[in-house]
Every structure is written in structure tokens, then in C-alpha cells.
Design a protein that fits this description.
Elements (H helix, E strand, L loop, with lengths): L13 H17 L13 E5 L10 E4 L6 E5 L5 E5 L4 E4 L12 E6 L7 E5 L8 E5 L7 E4 L17 E3 L7 E4 L5 E4 L7 E2 L20 E6 L13 E5 L7 E4 L7 E2 L6 E7 L5 E6 L10 E6 L5 E3 L3 H5 L5 E7 L7 E6 L8 E4 L7 E2 L4 E3 L23 E3 L7 E4 L4 E4 L8 E5 L9 E5 L7 E5 L4 E4 L17 E8 L2 E10 L10 E4 L7 E3 L19 E3 L6 E3 L5 E3 L7 E2 L10 E2 L7 E5 L4 E5 L7 E3 L22 E3 L7 E5 L2 E5 L7 E2 L5 E8 L2 E8 L2 E7 L7 E2 L11 E6 L7 E5 L4 E6 L4
Parallel strand pairs: 26-30
Antiparallel strand pairs: 1-56, 2-3, 3-4, 4-5, 6-7, 7-8, 8-9, 10-11, 11-12, 12-13, 14-15, 15-16, 16-17, 18-19, 19-20, 20-21, 22-23, 23-24, 24-25, 27-28, 28-29, 29-30, 31-32, 32-33, 34-35, 35-36, 36-37, 38-39, 39-40, 40-41, 42-43, 43-44, 44-45, 46-47, 47-48, 48-49, 50-51, 51-52, 52-53, 54-55, ...
């Protein structure tokens, strides 16, 4: 895989994150204080739909004091802890409701107390940032908002680690910020002060924020102090342009001297048990766009030498080294991993003689992805991986090595000196994906999903990683999915492609429930003629019987022969999504936002005409789609012809006569997203000051909360839908914590 744009890995849209965060804060500020009573609630059991990781995890860190304890940080899906007893990664931030805190800039387990762990959280420079402290392995957190900005989902998130704990005085922490220089805490992260004499002070213009490397790592030499005596030697790497990229302090951070190194950014730094510093250098922040790099070794006095693997130079010196790890049990053993080495593919190199010679592990590596077959979604075998920035050697077992990629975490239990090295995904419990859309059809698989970066899947078994079926045509992002209400084996989808590869379609049609596909193309339109169907901007809709397809191109098109022939739809303005009645194949609906009209077709989308739509607001502009990934504001009931639900701003309306009349269906709930299920409607919204998931069984007059304070997932909601065949079942897609299904506990 050679990504140009990844989403979680996904490099989430800054604008969308800002909207999510602003919406959450605004809704909270508008909540009525001292509401009369707590909202009703229904106890639900929540389970991740299994994929198995799926996104970019910038680093993995083992505990230095307890065997079998490790932490993983992700760029938009929070952090995880490996629990050896249950052999599973445990999510640590599902109870967090602040979207920005799901982007983890750095993580640091305490080097003396296995129960203590710290995190630096903040998804982007314009978002809230905090240091999180836990004394119970991440089960609960104390949160300290900080004035320095972070970039947990910005370029450079694979650098680090920026957060460091002095192993000789564990209440003393350092944090290297992107924008605001070096900071120190002497009270276990409760308060922070800027290190005034550090040579890189930060950005000169107050309030100016952009993607920025800043201080990439802080590494503390444990041999330079003693029990109760703070370590004297502290290293700090800088990933800003300039003459110096590495600094050393010999007086516990009070004063600093420049250290000689290559004319590259200091990206990753690790101190081994002898006090030797190992640094991976790169020409850019990464994880993309790095041209070259180097590996250096520094003795305690600051004397450095280039130990870059010679064979890497001989193959063109492509890419750099964002993964650096040392063995606590075998002094002189160090491993490095490459990033952006496209021509020869990324790999892992290990030296057991202080960098004098290196073994390229890649050519003798084998990968077993049978537990997570989704990794084959691009139609080829699993390779060593891309965007490798996290690399760790188990301090209690030098043969146990793990590394992170843009889609998974690989581990081996036997990194031997010779012979095959077997790697397998180490991902049980990790679900770190961005969900764009989903559908729960009236027949076939219970769920069909549209993912960012991973295309999408047919989930026949919600608890098993799916095999890739969204292959031909392949779109890295699936933006819309629709199914035929009375012939649910017919499924259509549209999507976009962020990988640099040729394509002739951004839409597909399946007649076997999404397992195989036929490309759908629409004729060129305009003057001069232009193919408008190649970029994934326009949703595709299918009629209840699967015969008719409508595409919302600038000149809407309809086909009744599986896409072989197309004609222009009369009366339907361009770029407006048509919604099929799920029970009557002749009927389609649409909302003309610009002119404030509801439209209906009763001739299988040959033409549309205006209906009365009494009861709706005069201004329907809030109904309009905001980008190709937005969910439809108009939804047809899967069980009843002529029954429509429409979201206008924060208000939900229902019609039972094909759009002639609408009645409010939101009660006191301010609705953000909604979806229909069997005998119920589900929503993401705010009621009585509580933002989360809700269910109504009385057409929206009253609502009961279905999530709880332990299941907030950062408040990063993307889509919600019920199941038309299973009463009470709901699916929620998040932006970073994957896809969930929920069932009422009493119903099991």
C-alpha cells in the first residue's frame, strides 16, 4: 500500500473536526441548566463490529517494569492497553466525550510504577489539548488542560515520544510541544511551566497555528541520576528547519547545548540502559513525503556517529527511519524501521553490535493475516506495511518485537538471527477506523459498511473480521450505500479514491448482497463533455425492486437496465440525492433545498414534481448535504410505503402520506444524526444537556438514552441506523473508534 492520504490513519479533515468539537461545545452551552429530571434511559450492551485495528497507530510503548504490559496510541481513536490476562487490547477512552482528546500526541508509562501512565491528548492545533494522568492503568483519568497546542492527527504524529518521565524522579516530566517550546512538570503532570532557557522557544506569532514539528522527542538518560536524584542528562530532538536539530542538557534541563548531527530533522530518539542515545532522522515530518533519512548513535558525552544501514544507502537511501527501539536485556541491540520507502518497500533492520552491522529482516519475513483478512482489501497480498513509525522491543523478551503501520499492528515472538520470521496482527480489541456510511438491509447480511481508507465490507458475522468484497470497482472511501427495499440483494455504492491509481468508475452495483460488483459509469455531460462520475461526489440510489438507479450528478441521470443506458431525470435539479421508497418501486423523493421544496416521482424517476410538504420550516437550507460524506437528511421507512423522516437543522419531521404533510418527531431532542430500525427511530443528539445516542418507540415524541457515560467514544459520531429485522438493534459509526452495534440488555 502506498497511501497519498490516510484517514485514521485517516488524516481527518480539520474543518470536520472543528465542526464536531464546536457543535459539542455549542450544544453543551445551550443545554437547559437544572433540568427537571434526568432523561429516560434503556440499558444497552455495546460491542465493536470486528475489523481488527484498521487505522494508523503512531507508536507502541512497553512498560519497563511489568512484563506483558504495553500501551498503544492512535491518531484519532484514543489509546489502548494490552491486558495479558485476557489477551486483548483494552480501549482507555471510551468514556471520553471530548473529540479532540481522542488524538494522542504522546504516551508514557511510568518507569517505576506499573499502575501509572500519562498521555498528551489533542487532535489538532486549533483543538483543546490536555495532559491525562492515570493511577489505575487508564481505567480513569485526571485531566489537566494545557496552554500548548498538540497535533495528534497532524503530520508528524509518528515522531516522538514527546512526553518523558524521569526514571529517577518520577514526578518530574518533560513535554516537547509542536508550537510552544519545551515544558516541565514537577508534580506528576498537575501543573506545567515552560523551560525558559531551551533554545527553541516556539512560534513567534501568538495564536498562529499550523502543522508544525517543534520538539519531536525528549529522552532522559537514567544513568545520569539516582534514586531520588533527578537525572542530569536530558536530550531533545527538534523537527523544525534550522541549523541544529539535537540538544543536550547536563544539568536536568536548566541549560542546553547544541549537538552535532546530520542536516535532517531529529524524528525519533531512544536512550538505551547504558545511556546511549539512538536517533532516527528524516527529511520531513511524515508519515508521508519523506525523501531520505539517517540513523545516528550518541554516547553520553554527546559524541555521535552515523550508523545508518549500509544496504539501505546502497538501494537509493529512500525514505527515513521513524521507528527506533532498543533492547533492555541485550545492550547494543537496536532495531530501526523505514517509512516511505516505496521502491524497495519498507522494512525492519536490527543490529546486535551497536550499529556496526545490520540485518534486514524484511526479506525473511512472513505474515499471517487470516485473523484480519480485511488487510487484503486492495486486492493484493499483505506486505510488510506502510507508515511504519511505531517500533518496540519487549524489555522482558528481546525476541518479542512489534511495529505499527497505517492499518495494523504486527508482532513476532521470535525475531531470530536467521531463518523465517513470522509476523501476525497483534490487534485483538483494537478498532480504529473512520466510518463514513452504513446500511442495514431488509435481507441478507445484517450490515454493510462504508469506511474511510478501507473501502467497506459486508458483515455477515459482526464478530469476525470481514473479507474484502468492495474490490471491483475499488474506492478507498465509500461515501454512500443504498439497497433495494424489496430486493435487498441489490446494493449500490459510490466512493472516492485517494490512492494514485487509474480508475474508470466511482460507483458499483451488486446483485448478491455486496459480495461481487459491476462498475457503474454515467455518460459525459456538459459542454465540453466531462465525466462527472469519477470523483465520488454524487450519491447513487436504487428503487425498491432494484430495477431503477438514480445518480445525483449535475445533470441527474436514471437507468433501468443496470447502468447500460441512461436518460436525464426531468424536474430534479442537479446534485440532489433522490431517496427511493423502500416498498413502492415507482416512487422516489427528494428535497430541493435551494427553492424550499419537497419533490416526488411516481414514474420510477422519469420525472419529479412538487408536493405540498405542509408542516415543514420555510427554510430548508439546513437539510442540504454538506460534502459527499454527509448522511442523507431524508430517509424512507423500510416497512411502510409513503413514510418519510426528514432532519431539518436540529428538528426531525415525519410524513406518512408521501411528503404531503409533515409533523414534528423530535420532542425535546436536538438531533444531529438519525436512522430507522424495526419499530423505532435512533438518533445522535442532545436532551437535558446530555449528548449521545437515543431511541424513540413512539414516532419521536419521547426519547430514551441508549448509551452511557462509559460509552461516549470521544463524541466523534458519523452515522447511526437501526436494524429493520431486529427490534432494538442499532449501529453507530464513529470517526476513529470504529463501528459499534448495540442491543437492549433486557432483550437478550
Amino acid at each position: 500500500m502506498i497511501p497519498l492520504r490516510r484517514t485514521g490513519g485517516r488524516l481527518a479533515s480539520t474543518r470536520r473536526l472543528r465542526i464536531v468539537a464546536t457543535t459539542a461545545l455549542l450544544l453543551a452551552s445551550l443545554a437547559t441548566p437544572g433540568s427537571a429530571r434526568a432523561p429516560d434511559a434503556v440499558a444497552y450492551r455495546w460491542t465493536n463490529v470486528t475489523v481488527g485495528a484498521g487505522g494508523y497507530a503512531p507508536n507502541i510503548v512497553f512498560s519497563a517494569v511489568e512484563r506483558g504490559l504495553a500501551y498503544l496510541r492512535t491518531d484519532m481513536g484514543g489509546a489502548y492497553r494490552w491486558d495479558e490476562k485476557i489477551a486483548r487490547w483494552v480501549p482507555l477512552q471510551d468514556g471520553n466525550a471530548v473529540p479532540s482528546y481522542m488524538g494522542i500526541e504522546s504516551i508514557a508509562p511510568d518507569p517505576r510504577d506499573p499502575d501509572v501512565v500519562y498521555m498528551a491528548a489533542g487532535v489538532g492545533a486549533s483543538q483543546p489539548a490536555a495532559i491525562l494522568r492515570s493511577a489505575d492503568r487508564g481505567r480513569s483519568w485526571r485531566i489537566t488542560p494545557v496552554p500548548f497546542a498538540m497535533g495528534g492527527n497532524e503530520d508528524g504524529r509518528g515522531l516522538g515520544e514527546r512526553l518523558a518521565i524521569d526514571p529517577n524522579a518520577t514526578r518530574r516530566l518533560f513535554f516537547g510541544s509542536r508550537h510552544d517550546g519545551l515544558w516541565r512538570s514537577d508534580d506528576a503532570g498537575a501543573t506545567w511551566a515552560k523551560v525558559a532557557r531551551f533554545p527553541v522557544a516556539g512560534l513567534a506569532r501568538p495564536g498562529f497555528r499550523r502543522t508544525h514539528g517543534g520538539i519531536a522527542f525528549v529522552a532522559i538518560d537514567p544513568t545520569s541520576g539516582g534514586a531520588g536524584r533527578p537525572s542530569r542528562r536530558v536530550w531533545a530532538g527538534v523537527a523544525d528547519p534550522g541549523a541544529t536539530h539535537l540538544y543536550r542538557s547536563d544539568d536536568a534541563g536548566e541549560t542546553w547545548i547544541a549537538v552535532t548531527g546530520p542536516a535532517l530533522l531529529a524524528a525519533k530518539g531512544v536512550v538505551d540502559p547504558r545511556g546511549v542515545l539512538w536517533v532516527g532522522y528524516a527529511s520531513g515530518l511524515g508519515p508521508s513525503g519523506i525523501a531520505t533519512g539517517a540513523v545516528w548513535r550518541y554516547d553520553r558525552d554527546g559524541t555521535g556517529r552515523d550508523v545508518t544501514p549500509a544496504a539501505w544507502r546502497d538501494t537509493g537511501a529512500e525514505g527515513a527511519f521513524l521507528g527506533v527501539a532498543v533492547s533492555a536485556m541485550s545492550p547494543g541491540t537496536v532495531a530501526v524501521s523505514t517509512v516511505d520507502r516505496y521502491k524497495h518497500r519498507d522494512s525492519l533492520w536490527i543490529s546486535r553490535d551497536d550499529g556496526r552491522s545490520w540485518d534486514d529482516v524484511g526479506p525473511r519475513s512472513r505474515r499471517d493475516v487470516s485473523a484480519t483478512p480485511f488487510l487484503l482489501h486492495e486486492g493484493k497480498g499483505a506486505d510488510f506495511g506502510h507508515w511504519i513509525s511505531g517500533l518496540a522491543i519487549d524489555p522482558f523478551d528481546p525476541g518479542h518485537v512489534a511495529y505499527t503501520t497505517g492499518a495494523t499492528v504486527y508482532a513476532t515472538r521470535a525475531l531470530t538471527r536467521s531463518g523465517a520470521v513470522d509476523w501476525a496482527p497483534w490487534t485483538r480489541g483494537i478498532e480504529q477506523t473512520a466510518i463514513i456510511t452504513l446500511a442495514s438491509p431488509t435481507g441478507g447480511a445484517p450490515l454493510i459498511s462504508g469506511f474511510g481508507d478501507l473501502a467497506g465490507f459486508v458483515h455477515d458475522d459482526l464478530d469476525r473480521s470481514p473479507r474484502p468484497t468492495f474490490v471491483d470497482p475499488y474506492m478507498s472511501n465509500t461515501n454512500t450505500i443504498d439497497y433495494a427495499g424489496m430486493a435487498p440483494n441489490v446494493v449500490v455504492r459510490s466512493g472516492s479514491l485517494y490512492l494514485d491509481r487509474p480508475r474508470d468508475a466511482s460507483m458499483g452495483r451488486s446483485e448478491d448482497g455486496g459480495r461481487t460488483w459491476t462498475e457503474i459509469t454515467v455518460p459525459a455531460m456538459g459542454n465540453p463533455p466531462r465525466r462527472e462520475d469519477l470523483n465520488g461526489d454524487w450519491p447513487i440510489t436504487v428503487s425498491a425492486d432494484g430495477t431503477t438507479m438514480v445518480v445525483a450528478t449535475p445533470v441527474p441521470q436514471v437507468s433501468r437496465d443496470a447502468g447500460r443506458h441512461w436518460s436525464i431525470v426531468a424536474g430534479l435539479p442537479g446534485k440532489i440525492r433522490a431517496v427511493a421508497d423502500k416498498r413502492d418501486p415507482r416512487v422516489f423523493y427528494a428535497v430541493d433545498v435551494l427553492h424550499g421544496r419537497v419533490l416526488v416521482s411516481r414514474d420510477a424517476a422519469a420525472s419529479f414534481s412538487v408536493v405540498a410538504a405542509r408542516g415543514l420550516p420555510a427554510d430548508l437550507k439546513p437539510v442540504g448535504r454538506q460534502g459527499r460524506e454527509a448522511q442523507s437528511s431524508l430517509v424512507a421507512d423500510p416497512d411502510r410505503t409513503g413514510t418519510l423522516w426528514l432532519l431539518a437543522g436540529e428538528r426531525l419531521f415525519r410524513s406518512i402520506d408521501g411528503g404531503a404533510n409533515f409533523a414534528p418527531a423530535h420532542g425535546e431532542l436536538r438531533v444531529e444524526l438519525f436512522g430507522l430500525g424495526r419499530n423505532g427511530v435512533f438518533a445522535i443528539g442532545t436532551l437535558a444537556g446530555v449528548r449521545g445516542g437515543w431511541r424513540s418507540v413512539d414516532q419521536g415524541r419521547s426519547w430514551a438514552r441508549i448509551d452511557d457515560d462509559a460509552h461516549r467514544w470521544g463524541g466523534r459520531y458519523r452515522v447511526i441506523s437501526g436494524d429493520p429485522r431486529r427490534e432494538g438493534r442499532v449501529y453507530i459509526g464513529t470517526d476513529g473508534r470504529g463501528l459499534f452495534y448495540g442491543d437492549p440488555i433486557a432483550a437478550r
